[in-house]
Each structure stands twice: as C-alpha cells, then as structure tokens.
Structure to design on (807 residues):
C-alpha cells in the first residue's frame, strides 16, 4: 500500500488504515488511532464550487460521494447518521447523468467559495462554458472538461468577491536593538510595506522601557501614544486610550510636546495611563494646540489605517526609529516586550479587527521589565537555563507563561496571529512566548542577526503573492470533524485551539486540545498539519468489513477576505480481531510523527526522564506485540519492515509539519558524493565519514556539507580551478547545488553549514550520527571516532530485542 499516494488524494496520513472493532484490541495496538491531516494540501485537481454546501440536518455532515442519493425523490441519505435529507430547489435538475461535483466518486475533497459575492444554491452557479454548469458534471463528459470548474494548486482560482478592507498587520519593533541591527530591520520593514496590498491595514508599535504606538493618521508631525512598560493594561484600557487624545499638556523640550492622559494630581499620573507624545518629524513643526475634553470623541483614529491612506506616514515613522539610549553599565537594555504585545493585540481588539490580522514582533533580546519579563536587567542575574526551568529556579518563568497564556486566549478570541522574529545571540524568551505563537499558528524564527539572509528570506516569503496578486495568507480558520457514530474524537495536537464544542462524537478521553469536535486556527498554510486522535465506542456494533467515515470541514478566509470551505471525506473499513490487515495497513512514517508529537506534548508537563521512560516502555510493548520471535530467544527477533525502530525516540519541534518533514526532523537524511557515481543515500552512522567523499546532511533546521580530509586538501590546493581536474570541480559543485535547492524551498530557512573533516563546524554532523565507533572501541584505526558515553544503535536494538521476547 502506497501511503504517500493516498495522501496525495486525501491530504491525510493514517497511523492505522484498518481499525479493529473491539476496544481491547485497539488498546493493544500501542500506537493510537490517529490521522495526520493537512487541511490545505495542494491538489492537482480540486473542484471549486461557487455555492453553499449541503449539510445534514442532524449531524451537519456535508454532502459527499458516500451519500446515497434518490434522484427520483430528490433525497439524499447521510452516510454518517443515515438521516434522509431533501435536496433544495437549486438541485432540481440533477440526475444519474448530471451529478454535482461533490457527489462524484473521484472527488474526496471539494472546496466551496463563499462570501458576499456568492449567491446560495447550485442553480445560481453561472454557466462558464457551454459544456459545464458551475459545480455540475455529466458522467459522459471527459476528464479534460474538468478544468471548466476545477482549479489546481491550493484551489484559489476563483478568488470570489473581496471586501473593501484587507487583513491587518501591526509591526512591533524592538527599539533596544543596536543601530546596525535596527538599520537592517528597517530596510526589510520598508520593503515589506511596499509589498502589501493597498487595502491592508497597518500599525506600528516601538518598544524599549516604554511602548510607543504611532498615530499614522496625524499628518502634521510624528505623534505617538506612550504606555508605561512596567504596567499591565487590560484590553478595555488599551481600546479606551487608543481612541482618545490627552487632557493636560506639558512642554518637554524645544520640539516635543507631551500631553498626559488621565487624572492628574500635582502633575503625577495616577493609574496605568499613557502619555501622548507629538514629535517634530518630516511632516512639519510640532503641534502645540490645547486639547479639550469635548474634542476627544471626534479625534481621528489613525493607529490602524489602510496602506493607501498612510504609506508615506508609516514609512517615515519606520525611518524615524532610532536605537534607544546607551544602557547603564552592567545592565541589560530595558525591554517591555510583554506590554508591547498586549498593546498591539488591544489595538486590534479595539478596532474590532476579527477577520484576519497579524502581530509581528521583531526583537533582539530578552524582556527585562513589566509583564512577560524573563530576566532582571542587572547582568549579575544570569538568564534562566533549561535546568532552571525543570528545577523551578526560573524566577519569572511561571508568571510570564501565565501572562502569555492570557495573551493567547485574546489572540484566539479575535482571530489574531502572533509572529516572533528573534535575532540575537542571547535568549529572547522563546520558551515563554511559544504558547501564544504556536496556538495562534504564528511563525517563529530564531536567528542571529537581522542582517542575515535567513531573516530576509523568511520575512519576504511570508508576503509572497499568488497569480491573482493576493497575499498567500489565510486567516480566521476552523476545522470541524464529523465521524460515524462508533468513532469518538479524543483531541488534536498542532497549531489549533479547542473551542469546547461538544456533541455525541466527542470522547471523554482527552488528548491535547480535546473536549470538542471544532478547533480554531489563527492561520493555515499548505503545509500546516494537525494530528487528530480517535477511539472507538465501548459498546460497538460495527461488523468487520463494514465501512466507517470521517469528514474534515475546514473553513478559512483568504487575504482578500473571501470565505472558503474545504471538505474532505474519507472511508476505511473495520476489521476483525487479529486480522492481518491491521499490520499491513500500518503506516510507520505517520506513526513515527504521531509518537513524536505525543512525546513533545508529554514533555511540556513531565520531566524529560519520564518521557524517555514512557517511550522506552511504548516501544518495547509495540515490538512485543508485532514482532516475530521465539520466546526468550533475542536472536530470533524479527520485525516487519512496515514498523519503525528508533524514530519515535527523537523529540523535535514538528507540531505543524506534515509527515515527510517530520521524518526529516526525526531521522535526518545523509547523502554521499564521490567519484564513483551519482550521490547515494548512506546510513546515519559515523562509519559513513570517509576522507575521499563529500556528505550532504539535512536535519530540516540545518543543512551541512561535510568535506572529507582529502577532498578539503585538494580544494585548498586549488585542483578545482585546474582544467585537467574538471571532474573534481563538478564533484564540489554537486552538493552545493542540492543544498541551495533545499535551503530555497524550505521555511524557516535552514542554516547552511560548510565544514571540513576534523574541523570545529563538523560537530553539526557528528552530533547526529550513530556512535558505532567511540573512544572505547577496540579497532579504530583509520576511522572517525565520536567521543561519547551513549550506546550505539546496535546495542540499543539488542536490548530492545531481549526485552521484547521476555515471557
């Protein structure tokens, strides 16, 4: 069974393709019943239907190829709950020779394009060609006519009717960055502004010890609202402050006017209220007019404006950003990152932008003041380590994590995405910020410098456009799962949030984000992958060989604010006890990805040692269940090639990638280049290192080109520049071309490392190789050695076999 081919048809990878009918048999499988779902899988042939889907009146499942249809009575029977549903009048002309695309057997996935410009009903679809009704297809028509109503790629050929206002982007910039870093960041932000659609809303927030929100609608000078970086503000306070101008003005210096907002007693501000600063800039002299209370409500809200109205203003404001004053000796810069994020989210909440928006944070250091701080500004206090987090010695970790969890709830409620671009040699607080970034589906990039090619490529890739000129971004998404009555939903792991919407298909057992059959996602990409977990009902009446169904309904919004709904319906069969179809339908790659996600989920709540013990126990149980062996005889142990070995042990960040990329993270690839022929894959072992070969290593986050000692010596001698050594020149070029292709196609952009054998950079490769030869090995002459106390894969497997065959 080709599981990759099935994924290309359904966008799904099942850990088990045949499910047992009894609960004890399911428990003995060890690997849970699960599906890796990539909702926006690019299909070569995807029907695009410009009308509303038909839902079952009882279970809300969408009409699909597995539904039984009575064309005479115009009734369809739901394949999930067997409810009879009448077709609406718009389906009056359907018959056996003229069926809707959603009923065609080859289309397990269809996409509905909704929105203000779409009229309801099948009959409302306009005829786009003489031979094709919108959403209808004749059985006698050829496959070539499918292009009349289907699109390729992600299925966005019919853009629908967009609305006036586009998505919103609030750029949150760290003013404590060094001048060089800030200049590089400003260049990229200015370039990003030029690539935004004219109807996109933009806002700008700059933070150091204070948080400054720019009023982009004020044309006379640069004007900002300043919030104190040590005080936490509620969303209501941010919304109230951002819609008003101050009451009492005080001269600050020759060309700056400060207007204090709030209740003032003896010129001391009470309560967590902001300051409004109006500074001289490119727009002319500063404003000095007094502001009255009566004029507050009529003040223009210019903190979030379309690019068409404020492009010059925001570009001028970005150019005006300067690095904060010099830091006190022996101290870190005062960064109020938490308040800056809270204010940016509050700005979007106050403007009621809940159909698609991003808060994009650019920082170069840890938060040192206010809510969300992770370390004291005094350098005598070291930043928390991984051991400190486990031992409870990280002073600010718990409070900061709780603060950011509250932020994540606000992000979910308003469909806001939080992105983090952190470029620093120091920690920036990614551990605390991980939860809101991941739960909102945001992008996280950890780099060394804003001047790096990695940062530039990542940021520009986010603002790529499709053939219609729309941003390749999707917002305000949700996924609903509908199941046959015997299948229960346990939960999901990935960039999603449970909205606690229960029905009869929701299990009491919770895995990850559970207790629901609908999940909220801030955004989606064509590679976003979510793992869904299931169990069967206690008293199950299904018969072996009968079918069960699972449907995924993904609703999302394009960057032009048009609504889309993609529906995928899949069917599998129940099998009897000890059926051979269970083992033959096991997808080891999907199972490895699922187990890795479960390990990551457990690691967030348990000690690493406990997670490793759980993985050990799980692997032993699995090998004992499916291995072929004579009891108490380890040498007789055999395991089918359908099953994984060590891949489930690696704990890596793979919660949103699909199966292929997850496997690269779990078990990196290694290719060998030599004079003997084309590149060949080799085992991930220290024995693969040789003086006269080049190795190309890919671990998803790092791509390493490793030159053997002889190859490196010949390169240093310049043999590749000698025309008589053309073959050597081609040998050097081959891995570089392949590495450049890997780097160009992947986001986040992996770090490219070029190193020679025995050099310090070779550690990027040696750290991932199986230590079959160590300092304790007896015969090491002429071979590479890894200095480690870890056991080799062979020793590990021998112990696994011994434990698996025990009685």
């Amino acid at each position: 069974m080709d599981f990759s081919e099935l994924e290309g048809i359904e966008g799904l990878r099942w850990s088990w393709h045949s499910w047992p009918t009894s609960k004890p048999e399911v428990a003995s499988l060890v690997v849970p019943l699960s599906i890796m779902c990539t909702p926006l899988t690019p299909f070569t042939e995807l029907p695009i239907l410009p009308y509303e889907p038909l839902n079952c009146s009882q279970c809300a499942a969408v009409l699909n190829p597995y539904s039984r249809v009575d064309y005479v009575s115009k009734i369809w029977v739901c394949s999930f709950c067997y409810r009879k549903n009448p077709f609406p009048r718009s389906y009056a002309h359907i018959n056996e020779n003229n069926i809707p695309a959603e009923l065609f057997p080859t289309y397990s996935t269809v996409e509905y394009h909704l929105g203000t410009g779409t009229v309801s009903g099948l009959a409302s679809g306009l005829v786009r060609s003489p031979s094709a009704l919108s959403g209808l297809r004749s059985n006698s028509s050829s496959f070539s006519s499918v292009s009349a109503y289907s699109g390729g790629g992600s299925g966005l050929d019919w853009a629908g009717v967009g609305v006036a206002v586009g998505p919103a982007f609030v750029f949150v910039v760290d003013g404590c960055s060094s001048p060089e870093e800030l200049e590089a960041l400003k260049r990229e932000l200015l370039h990003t502004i030029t690539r935004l659609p004219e109807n996109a809303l933009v806002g700008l927030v700059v933070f150091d010890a204070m948080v400054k929100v720019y009023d982009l609608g004020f044309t006379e000078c640069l004007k900002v609202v300043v919030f104190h970086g040590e005080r936490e503000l509620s969303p209501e306070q941010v919304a109230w402050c951002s819609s008003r101008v101050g009451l009492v003005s005080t001269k600050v210096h020759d060309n700056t006017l400060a207007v204090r907002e709030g209740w003032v007693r003896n010129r001391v501000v009470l309560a967590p209220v902001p300051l409004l600063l109006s500074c001289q800039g490119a727009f002319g002299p500063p404003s000095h007019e007094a502001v009255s209370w009566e004029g507050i409500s009529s003040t223009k809200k210019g903190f979030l404006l379309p690019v068409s109205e404020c492009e010059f203003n925001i570009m001028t404001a970005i150019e005006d950003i300067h690095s904060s004053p010099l830091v006190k000796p022996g101290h870190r810069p005062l960064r109020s990152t938490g308040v800056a994020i809270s204010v940016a989210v509050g700005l979007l909440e106050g403007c009621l932008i809940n159909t698609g928006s991003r808060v994009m944070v650019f920082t170069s250091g840890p938060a040192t003041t206010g809510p969300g701080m992770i370390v004291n500004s005094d350098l005598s206090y070291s930043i928390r380590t991984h051991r400190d987090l486990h031992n409870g010695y990280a002073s600010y970790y718990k409070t900061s994590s709780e603060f950011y969890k509250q932020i994540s709830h606000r992000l979910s409620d308003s469909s806001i995405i939080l992105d983090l671009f952190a470029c620093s040699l120091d920690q920036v607080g990614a551990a605390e910020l991980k939860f809101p970034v991941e739960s909102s589906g945001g992008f996280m990039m950890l780099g060394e410098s804003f001047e790096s090619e990695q940062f530039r490529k990542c940021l520009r890739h986010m603002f790529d456009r499709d053939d219609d000129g729309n941003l390749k971004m999707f917002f305000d998404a949700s996924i609903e799962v509908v199941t046959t009555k015997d299948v229960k939903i346990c939960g999901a792991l990935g960039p999603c949030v449970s909205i606690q919407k229960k029905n009869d298909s929701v299990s009491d057992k919770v895995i990850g984000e559970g207790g629901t059959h609908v999940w909220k996602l801030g955004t989606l990409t064509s590679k976003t992958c979510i793992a869904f977990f299931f169990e069967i009902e206690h008293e199950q009446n299904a018969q072996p060989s009968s079918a069960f169904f699972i449907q995924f309904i993904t609703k999302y919004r394009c960057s032009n604010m048009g609504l889309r709904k993609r529906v995928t319906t899949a069917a599998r069969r129940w099998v009897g006890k000890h059926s051979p179809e269970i083992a033959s339908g096991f997808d080891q790659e999907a199972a490895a990805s699922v187990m890795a996600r479960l390990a990551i989920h457990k690691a967030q709540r348990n000690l690493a040692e406990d997670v490793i013990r759980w993985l050990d126990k799980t692997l032993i149980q699995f090998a004992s269940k499916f291995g072929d062996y004579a009891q108490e005889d380890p040498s007789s142990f055999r395991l089918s090639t359908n099953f994984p070995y060590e891949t489930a042990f690696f704990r890596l960040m793979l919660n949103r990638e699909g199966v292929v990329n997850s496997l690269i993270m779990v078990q990196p690839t290694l290719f060998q280049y030599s004079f003997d022929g084309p590149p060949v894959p080799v085992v991930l072992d220290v024995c693969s290192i040789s003086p006269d070969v080049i190795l190309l290593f890919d671990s998803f986050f790092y791509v390493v080109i490793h030159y053997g000692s002889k190859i490196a010596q010949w390169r240093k001698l310049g043999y590749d520049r000698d025309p008589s050594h053309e073959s050597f020149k081609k040998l050097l070029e081959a891995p570089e071309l392949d590495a450049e292709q890997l780097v160009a196609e992947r986001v986040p952009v992996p770090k490219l490392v070029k190193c020679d054998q025995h050099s310090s950079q070779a550690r990027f490769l040696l750290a991932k190789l199986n230590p079959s030869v160590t300092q304790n090995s007896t015969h090491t002459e002429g071979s590479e050695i890894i200095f480690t106390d870890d056991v080799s894969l062979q020793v590990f497997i021998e112990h696994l076999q011994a434990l698996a065959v025990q009685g």
About this structure: Confidence is low (pLDDT under 50) at residues 116-163, 245-300, 641-653.
